[in-house]
């Protein structure tokens, strides 16, 4: 993960709504086409309507994959819809170039978002809908079975009835998790009963493909208490630290609160530095030298902050030596096995003028990839570093 973590847990909600798979696809209402020819959902064609935003890190991660799918499924029309300002989206699309090679459009007063996202009770992005023969037959995260579903649609093996069952089970499961996480016991128990009655064995949704409400509730309560403990540490509220720490110990006797405390302190240090450097405050120069020590053993925070220093457009005074130090430390803390951290270190080396080393470590990042999600991005970075050496 390259971006700073705004929260240690984000739970999306997909509430049950009147809209369901198989319903007629609403018209897409577009204010401006940013890339590609204008399109309408008509006839017997297949379309992917994806909702995204330039500020959304998961959206940015899915863009190269959507581009690859557009190349693979040439008979499918991919449309990325954002409700941001035209100038913001235009600049982003121009910067992405060939990495974002499908139609991109600006929603007309959020009307398209309302007819798709709101109708299905979806409030998180990125989120995609597949339309075939003017009916919505699939919806979900673009990195979650979209490619597999499109392949099944192309070969005539897609089963809408199974897709409906999966969609309803996913709705119920997400609502159950949200209720359990928020401590809404009665609501969680009611949703659990619905799941156990009709969809407890739906593949690919529940952990280990089996729904265990008691275990899930315990895990989610632990997550909530950890978040509360981390926040209390970050805010210096000693009484809350003791309270939530005690409750965590009851649930997990072997939990290491000292490690959680260090995590909270790392999060706080990362956030304070990021805010200072974005604002151009002299405080950043004071906080910077202390960061490496505070982020020791906290590879995720170190890597995320290093990447922001190197790439965030809001940062005018980039401390490249600090980014190099933090990214190297993140690699060391992860035994040089994490592809994303190696990629950040390669970028820091390149920006430090160490072009040959950047090439070496970008190659290591590619070799460490466990999936193809970031392959295109890493390959383009490698080409950039290699081209710089040849000049």
Would you kindly provide a written description of the structure presented here, covering whatever features stand out?
The protein contains 15 helices and six strands. The protein is α/β, with parallel strands linked by helices. A hairpin with a 2-residue loop joins strand 5 and strand 6. The longest helix is centred in the middle third of the chain and has 23 residues. The protein starts with 29 loop residues before the first strand and ends with a helix.
What's the short story on this structure?
This protein has 391 residues and is α/β, with parallel strands linked by helices.
Q: Strand-residue fraction? A: 5-15%
What is the global morphology?
A: globular
Model regions low in confidence, pLDDT < 50 over at least 5 residues: 3-17
Question: Helicity level, as a percent range?
Answer: 55-70%
Q: Describe the biggest sheet?
A: 6 strands, mixed
Give the ordered list of helices and strands.
EEHEHEHEEHHHHHHHHHHHH
Output the CATH homologous superfamily of the largest domain.
Glutaredoxin
Strand order of the biggest β-sheet: 1-4-3-2-5-6
- Tell me what the CATH architecture of the largest domain is: 3-Layer(aba) Sandwich
Number of helices: 15
Distance between the amino and carboxyl termini: 32 Å
- SS elements, strand count: 6
CATH topology of the largest domain, what is it called?
Glutaredoxin
CATH class of the largest domain: Alpha Beta
Look at the structure and give the mean pLDDT: 89
Label the structural class: alpha/beta
Number of domains: 3
The Rg value, from CA coordinates, equals 23 Å
